[in-house]
Design brief:
The chain is about 35% helix and about 25% strand. By secondary structure, the protein is an alpha/beta fold. The chain has a domain of about 150 residues: Rossmann fold (3-Layer(aba) Sandwich).
Length: about 260
């Protein structure tokens, strides 16, 4: 079922039900998380570094199994997979993970080759999404010829190219300088609007989460569990330095200090 159809029927695009994840050494990474992500929504997962946010995201992509509970995407159970990038899920890591011996366009081709998308459509998709991220002119460059921001744009283009209904993003701007990160946050929101995808964005930055998201899922320190979801009732487009965002950030900071500081 498409994102549009699921949205009309009010069905969650992603459903986490009592999810627990325990590592082989017995350490608990994620503890009893239940959360719905609506179709077409931009959801941010906010938690301190090392709390288990990325572990949960990897489980949603099928890169990790769950110890208890279930995760469904598009109404279908998520099974363990050997890689991200199925026709329903795109994944953007904190590191770009572009293959250094391939050009930008060839990196996207490797993902398209793992799908059932006809090869006759590949060129159109590569051009469309590289243009959307404003780097089509860099399509024949090697990753080591790109800046950090350009590499992440290529990585996002790769995740979008497979027509993924869901795009999972694991702190994709965490290694960028703040000026570049600001530009890319605004660009990402334009991509989200144009593509009508469901985005789940992991971050430990309160302001970043409030600028981007419709809702923010606030997690505890590790093992990760859900404290609450916060509706970001600010009109779009939002001013990253505006008083409304600053006021809401202050309220969330006070809440975070209560729950993270008391654990």
């Amino acid at each position: 079922m498409s994102v549009e159809a699921r949205s009309r029927e009010g069905l969650p695009q992603i459903a986490f039900r009592n999810v627990e994840i325990t590592y082989p050494n017995g350490a608990v990474a994620v503890e009893d998380i239940s959360l719905d992500v609506r179709a077409g929504e931009f959801l941010a997962i906010l938690g301190p570094s090392g709390c288990g946010k990325s572990t949960l995201l990897q489980a949603a992509a099928g890169l990790l199994g769950v110890s208890q509970g279930s995760i469904t995407v598009g109404g279908q159970p998520v099974g363990r997979r050997t890689r991200a990038g199925t026709p329903s899920i795109g994944y953007v890591f904190q590191e770009h993970r572009l293959l250094p011996w391939l050009t930008v366009a060839q990196n996207i081709e490797t993902v398209l080759a793992a799908t059932t998308i006809p090869k006759s459509e590949w060129e159109h998709r590569i051009t469309e999404y590289l243009s959307m991220l404003q780097i089509n002119h860099l399509r024949d460059r090697w990753p080591n010829q790109l800046s950090g921001g350009q590499r992440q744009r290529a990585s996002i283009s790769r995740a979008l190219s497979i027509d993924s209904d869901v795009v999972l993003m694991d702190e994709p701007f965490g290694t960028l300088d703040e000026v570049t990160a600001r530009t890319m946050r605004a660009e990402l929101l334009e991509v989200w609007k144009r593509t009508n995808r469901t985005f789940v964005f992991v971050t430990h930055s309160i302001r970043e989460s409030l600028f981007l998201a419709d809702r923010v899922a606030l997690f505890t320190k590790g093992p990760a569990s859900l404290i609450e979801t916060i509706d970001v009732d600010l009109p779009r487009p939002r001013n990253y330095d505006g008083p409304e965002l600053s006021q809401l950030e202050g309220e969330v900071v006070r809440r975070v200090l209560q729950v993270w500081g008391s654990e």
